[in-house]
Amino acid sequence: MRLLVTGGAGFIGSHIVDATLARGWSVRVLDSLDPRLHPGPPALDPRVELLTGDLADPDTAEHAVEGIDSVCHQAAKVGLGVSFADAPDYIRNNDYATAVLLAAMERRGISRLVLASSMVVYGEGGYTDSETGLAVRPGPRAEADLRAGVYDPRNPVSGAILIPAMVTEDAPLDPRNVYAASKVSQENLAAAWARSTGGAAIALRYHNVYGPRMPRDTPYAGVASLFRSALARGEAPRVFEDGAQRRSFIHVRDIAAANIAAAEALSADDAAGFRAYNVGADEVHTIGDIAAALSKSSTGAAPIVTGEYRLGDVRHITASSQLIKSELGWAPTVGFEEGMSELATAPLRGEPG
Which residues are CB-neighbours of 260 under 8 A, at least 6 positions away? Predict the structure, then answer.
């Protein structure tokens, strides 16, 4: 198979490239190599064909997909950003660039796509009512509750505190920030492309990804990177709210394996259409857990729980990954303690090895 990996010099993309080469596939990478994200030349395997360019440019996209069997689309602007002023950049890099890529794929007759999506498409995760046991979809948390230190969502009807549950792929999509809205749009574009062209697309809804090569401390980095960067500076990780926010932390090598499983499924399956899968860990951990594990593994300062909050943040979101296990045969292999111990000492992108 000849695979194009967009964003293949980045955190997740570079691990997918490694997994692709281990399968004996040919791989081409298209990456902008934005100097804000890539302070030096990428350390790619010499077997990789590297194209440098902007995916939002139609000529670049056309050149990138020439002679390709399948596309693994990882290139995106990620994270919550700084403010809504980031919105045009998110839309250009995530949605417009995806539309340009899909148009080029149609022109070249390429019918298989693996798309990097995210758990942020759900907004808040799954919840049940503490009194009735029924499933409830909460609205945004009230700022008055957050100021009072009441962080868990309430039943919008009764006001009762809700109990977190595992979110499944059939949950309604409820994007609550610009990044989330852009990922929903990417999924919708992929589904429309599949219907229009007879192609097949799989969207992988990554939960909290961590591991070697994460970007250093930036407003767009994940929480594991922020904590790891603080410890590297000799500072204590600062944990928002009460640290009890539940997440599915998933190692980047397991994410790469999920992309390979999706690409192989598309290659073996003639069925057209769009499918989405959660990709998360079997274990549920909290934001406080990850800060404590990194502090312990790096013998750094103990975390500080600050009580701070951001209105755009969700409280709990943990994945049920049963569907991808049953349909694609994927399962996570890197446990939380092993992964955190590795991350505590692994260099982040831009740090010396």
Answer: 16, 19, 20, 23
Per-residue confidence (pLDDT) for residue 6, from 0 to 100: 98
> By C-alpha distance, which of 122, 119, 101, 111 is closest to 54?
101
CA angle 204, 206, 210 (to 5 degrees): 140
Q: What are 212-251's pLDDT values in tens digits? A: 988 876 554 578 888 998 998 999 999 999 999 999 999 9
- The backbone region for 159, taken as left when phi is positive above 0, alpha when psi lies in -120 to 50, beta otherwise, is left
What distances in angstroms separate CA 49 from CA 67, 75, 127, 238, one per listed residue? 12, 16, 45, 41
The 10s digit of each residue's pLDDT in 93-150 is 999 999 999 999 999 999 999 999 999 999 888 899 988 999 998 988 999 999 999 9
Q: Which of 182-201 are b and which e, b meaning 16 or more Cβ less than 10 Å from the residue's Cβ?
A: bbbbbbebbbebbeebebbb
Reported as half-sphere exposure (CB side, CA atoms, 13 A), residue 283 has a value of 15
Residues sharing a CB contact under 8 Å with residue 6, sequence separation 6 or more, in sequence order: 13, 29, 30, 31, 55, 64, 71, 72, 73, 74, 75, 101
Residue 109: both structure tokens together: 């007759």
Whole-structure pTM value: 0.93
